[in-house]
Amino acid sequence: KKTEMDDTEVESEKVWLEKDMLFGEAPPTPFRRGSTDKFVISISAAMTIVTAVTVGHDNRGLGAGWFLEQVVVEDLSCSNTFAFPCHRWLDDGEDDGKVER
Questions:
Q1: H/E element holding 87?
Q2: Is 95 left (phi over 0), alpha (psi -120 to 50) or beta?
Q3: What is the pTM of this model?
Q4: What confidence tens digit (pLDDT) does each residue in 21-33 have?
């Protein structure tokens, strides 16, 4: 979600992260244990304030779950940074079983 200058909240479209969206010196396989993954995404409108981020996965494959420390969103057009701590599992067999937060 982002907040426009007139204080109305607008929800952005859902973005699926793909390997070709990895930024910089990223490992060849994203979401590996102990790694930090950076992605560059483009959304349709400029952000003013990011108020929430929802992260999840499709839970497919063996060992699909992962622990999410935090999400950091940086607006490259104005250098605003927004951090969203999570410190929870996205795993149907861990924690509360949710794969989206």
A1: strand 80-90
A2: left
A3: 0.71
A4: 777 766 667 777 7
